[in-house]
Amino acid sequence: MSFRIRDTDLLGRSGTFSVGGRSVDTPAFLPVIHPVRQLVPGPELLAMGFGAAITNSYISLRNYGHGISERGGIHGVVNYDGILMTDSGGYQVLEYGSIDADPLTMAEYQVEMGSDIAVVLDRPTGISATRERALETVEWTLRAARDTLPVVERTRGRMAWAIPIQGGLHADLVERSAKESAALPYDVYSVGSPVELMNSYRFTDLARLLLTAKRNLPPERPVHLFGAGHPLTMALAVAFGADTFDSASYALFARELRYMTRCGVRNVGELEELPCSCSICSRRTPRELLEMPREEAVGLIARHNLYVLREELLDVRQALHEGRLWEYLMQKTTCHPSLYGVRSLMVEASGDFTEFTRLFKRRALLLFGHEDVHRPELMTAASRARRVSPRGKSITLLIVHSVDVQAAPSAGDDVYFVVPFLGLVPPGLSDVYPFSQNSKPDPTSIDRRVLEETARASADAVSGWGITSAKIVHNGSGWAAEMAGLLASRLTERGIPATVEVSHV
Amino acid sequence: MSFRIRDTDLLGRSGTFSVGGRSVDTPAFLPVIHPVRQLVPGPELLAMGFGAAITNSYISLRNYGHGISERGGIHGVVNYDGILMTDSGGYQVLEYGSIDADPLTMAEYQVEMGSDIAVVLDRPTGISATRERALETVEWTLRAARDTLPVVERTRGRMAWAIPIQGGLHADLVERSAKESAALPYDVYSVGSPVELMNSYRFTDLARLLLTAKRNLPPERPVHLFGAGHPLTMALAVAFGADTFDSASYALFARELRYMTRCGVRNVGELEELPCSCSICSRRTPRELLEMPREEAVGLIARHNLYVLREELLDVRQALHEGRLWEYLMQKTTCHPSLYGVRSLMVEASGDFTEFTRLFKRRALLLFGHEDVHRPELMTAASRARRVSPRGKSITLLIVHSVDVQAAPSAGDDVYFVVPFLGLVPPGLSDVYPFSQNSKPDPTSIDRRVLEETARASADAVSGWGITSAKIVHNGSGWAAEMAGLLASRLTERGIPATVEVSHV
Hints:
2 copies of one chain form a homodimer.
Chain A: E1 2-9, E2 12-19, E3 22-26, E4 28-31, H1 42-47, E5 52-56, H2 57-64, H3 73-78, E6 83-87, H4 90-96, H5 103-113, E7 117-119, H6 131-155, E8 160-165, H7 171-182, E9 188-191, H8 194-199, H9 203-215, E10 223-225, H10 234-239, E11 244-247, H11 249-255, E12 258-261, E13 264-267, H12 286-291, H13 294-322, H14 325-332, H15 341-348, H16 350-354, E14 365-366, H17 376-387, E15 394-399, E16 415-419, E17 423-425, E18 438-439, H18 448-463, E19 469-474, H19 478-493, E20 498-502
Parallel strand pairs in A: 4-11, 5-6, 6-7, 7-8, 8-9, 9-10, 10-11, 14-18, 15-16, 15-19, 19-20
Antiparallel strand pairs in A: 1-2, 2-3, 12-13, 16-17
């Protein structure tokens, strides 16, 4: 097993995961292949670019038993020549109950199947578990992981092993589960419970669960997020640190004639036309899908859904590559109000993001609303700006919409720009990314809260310098006057008397 | 010529435009077909679903002269069997100068070409014109339109005629151009100058130009927006009232190996993978495009760009059909900061939108940020709510996150809900759309400005009732207390003393 990281952005990364002679680019979406009722043949999944998939070991055990190796293992059974992860079937064990499905049995069976990424039999926490019950699932799963270790050691090199992180909505238990899991010699961490959170549209809780786990796991190892492969959650999963995620939604939705779009799901009957360019949709109408035999329509919609998931994945990867995952995830939050809370979590996690978010990019930073004041790139840039402290005890702060390298006063004058979103910019750093390489709404369209938060951040930066007075200069336009007033108040609160002047120069 | 309107939403509408025995669904994107150098053959455009296209009469005149009718007219020359609009070539006339290109000559030539939608020879205003120059273009174009009338009358029934609206950024001149054009017997209004605005990313100015024109044109007739067929501007064009729009961008971008996405444009060399499911992209890599002969790559990218434009168009149409064009356009504004100002313009135009925006929809209203407080549906709903006036002089206002039909107090108590985004909701209207059929961020994720603007709107509504006191009740949570405080202040400002109480019932 190897995991090579190429690019990083926020807590996301792109890279290559290799095991047993096969490789897949990450972040990767793993379509669920049902071991028995397969909707889209394995070779088609591979041809669409899904180089890894996931199937279920418990259902395989019940259906194929120990004869599976004679059928070419699980790759032969499901006719898929990519990397195959095998879910341990914790949910199914809970549901159907079975005494023979103990951790060692399931581990040995996954070896027998020829799994590429086996998962320790877990006890899923779910989202309605009491703290007591959640603790039980954490401890049960950790015990199972320890019991499984002999099999892990015996098969090392041939296959990868994933340890499930439990705890659900109990953050302290997720932390404990992650910390103790991190101490065990597993290759992959797979974070549990997302499906229930997704089904109830609790996307912020989902992101927080992943963030909590991620904060307590070694950053160099891959993280799988169970079930989060949905157009609404893929960007979120990647931004908060998942490298792989799976989902059966493409097939489950298709069976109900539910048609995925990049921003939601529709019944085929609700569509006027098929708004997609894939081979299924570009020459068909919704009516044609509704009038053909249902099984045929289900198969076609499943393929369309896979195309949508693939598009979303490729867009997320490109955003990560360009270092604009923040912008991309912000956009996704406009798909549904339940995603809106993710914005605050992004602001909260900005400190986590800074370490892995490159400051320099080829593209301008795009700035929109007040959350963007807290972009990790701007936090990093601000900490540089703060180090350019004044020589004297008095400073001049020029309110400008954009820094103008030409018009920059000389640094010796203890003059600084204050720019919406960017905050304090020493003229000497004007041409350093992203101070000059950004795009923001025009002056009259900037949200008041952007001005408020810029003023607060700028005052905080200045207050570390031990200065005794500040002169704020603006050009007299409405937004600049407002910004100047806000800044003066924030400075005064911090014990720095500030005057405001208008200069039309 | 006939134009049948099916659905309306904001100032947009869907319908069918028919002329000369051919029909096209609107809103429609008309790809530009160059009369000589054609990048994508006409039959392919038709097969992709582009049932109308636009070409240039001036370039045709220079290249094919009066022999064009022997070649099967312009449809034969460009091998396109859909509705063909012919731009008059105002820009080209300005650029190359030509004494024989007077309005009547160009009108007669468009008849000779077999144009389906001919355009009066215009003098484009552009965006850098002084007021004097702009006035000149308005008057010149109106004069040309009057001079062309004999040809229009002679060919009525066989073809449609479009009159260009000039004035550019001079709103009063756009108004005059639109008003005087509306009085003339033309079939289509085509709004000029968007291309320059788009090239300089002045999207808010573009929307305002269209809004100004639209306010002064008869709503039942079709409006064409020159050049605005771009993934970033299509939703905007439709929302502000354009039925058709054209663009050559698919081809112009392709010639520079520029690859469209739904949210922007990239050089093919910047892409890691091709994030699209169209027949061009689903089996190719960016490298393959870069390594093939350039002309071949240009042709393929042009086709991909057309697929992206088609997807955007279909998504806009579906949003219009579902009555959620507001949500869709809000999403688009997160593609680039230059679009952010469009949000304020949407709020400003909400009064224009209400007339054509259906109140009842099959889908829940999705509410995100403070602009959504001013959604046309909520304005209409609020005016109903205001009519449910209290019996007495004192009212009780219950701050709630969502109206609960079960828990609704009886109407006789002069009790009202106050709900973020929705404002004042009389319990008797609780189950009326959209008071119960909406989705909003969870309580802790609602922007403060939403609370502020809800408080202001609610206080305005109450202040019309002549009441003398108000009791505000909330459940003690942070956001509800803040909302209660804001509401109390707004009421007090309006001369209505208000008390605030906490009730955990």
